[in-house]
Amino acid sequence: MTWARLGKIALAVVGLGIGVVGVLALREATLSTHEAVDARETRLVLSGETKGGEENQTLSEMVEAQVLTCRLEVESDLAGPIERLGDGRYRAVLVPALDDSNQRQFRGCLEDWVIDHVRLDVEQLDQIR
Amino acid sequence: MKVIAWLAGIGTLVAGGFYMIVSLNRWEWNRALFFGLIVLIAEVALATGLVLRRLTRLEYRIRRPVDPVVADALRETRPPSPDRFEWLRDATQRPNVFITFLIGGGVILSAGAWVVDRVAQKTSSPVGEQKLARQLSGISYPSGGLLLDDVTVLAQEVPGANDDQIRWLLRRAPHQ
């Protein structure tokens, strides 16, 4: 067996290993695993901007719609109305507190392309004891 | 230009795949779907480009003019054509599978010819007879017989003129 053939086999084995490790890592990162949380609630601060939307639809309505939509993907509810902080920033509180998996899922949903013409950026998503 | 196009395609594929994985890691499913679609489009475009490039190479090889010197050399050194019917000559010298094929083929051909003959006989004869009858109607005798003059009537009484065919033609009763 020549060195070139051995090199090709080694390269194929390394590539296969990288692929398997990558798929397993992606599986671990996207797997929803829940755990007990000591905190009482989770505070959310986000900023949003709209572009090309309908004339009568405000940014506040779009933010509220997306937050309520994403809230359905986790086990927590809004503890009150969404506060408008100005300059396109909003704050909300969710109870009970989100665990790590739910936090990632909630953040991903908020920053995803869920509703047309609006884009949200999560600035803060902390647990409050 | 082609290099730029290939680089753009490969870059789109790699970037789309990278952002698809990043979006999946961030739980952004709609973004992941979008970038996955970009990856799919780039992959199809690259695959199509590869296939077209291979086809173009083949076409170039086919259309390339042939060197006459090479063609002459090949023509002169062409091996003789194999005698593909040698087995037939051998088969006529001894009864083997050729005879079986010959007899079997003859039987099958005969059967086919018999079927064709029977079908033609059943279908073409009546049609041919009707056609011939129409053609002969122009020269046939009148159905009511010929008009006889006195000479002809008297001629029947002539000895030796007792002809049944003439009587039938004249629609006369046989002479008593």
Description of the structure:
- The complex is a heterodimer of chains A (129) and B (176).
- Chain A has 129 residues and is α+β, with helices and mostly antiparallel strands.
- Chain A has helices spanning 3-29, 59-71, 100-110, and strands spanning 41-50, 77-78, 83-86, 89-95, 118-128.
- In chain A, strands 1, 2, 3, 4 and 5 form a five-stranded antiparallel sheet that branches.
- In chain A, a hairpin with a 2-residue loop joins strand 3 and strand 4 (89-95).
- Chain B is mostly helical.
- Helix content of chain B is 73%, strand content 0%.
- Chain B has helices at residues 2-25, 29-63, 68-76, 86-93, 97-136, 150-156, 164-169.
- In chain B, helix 1 (2-25) packs antiparallel against helix 2.
- Chain B is elongated, with a radius of gyration of 46 Å.
- At the A-B interface, helix 1 and helix 3 of A face helix 1 and helix 2 of B.
Find the structural class of chain B using helix and strand composition: mainly alpha
Helix/strand order of chain A, N-terminal first: HEHEEEHE
What is the straight-line distance between the termini of chain B? 119 Å
* Structural class estimated from helices and strands of chain A: alpha+beta
The biggest beta sheet of chain A is recorded as: 5 strands, antiparallel
Give the termini separation of chain A: 65 Å
pLDDT averaged residue by residue of chain A: 91
Succession of helices and strands of chain B = HHHHHHH
Content of β-strand of chain A? 25-35%
How many strands of chain A? 5
Low-pLDDT runs of chain B: none
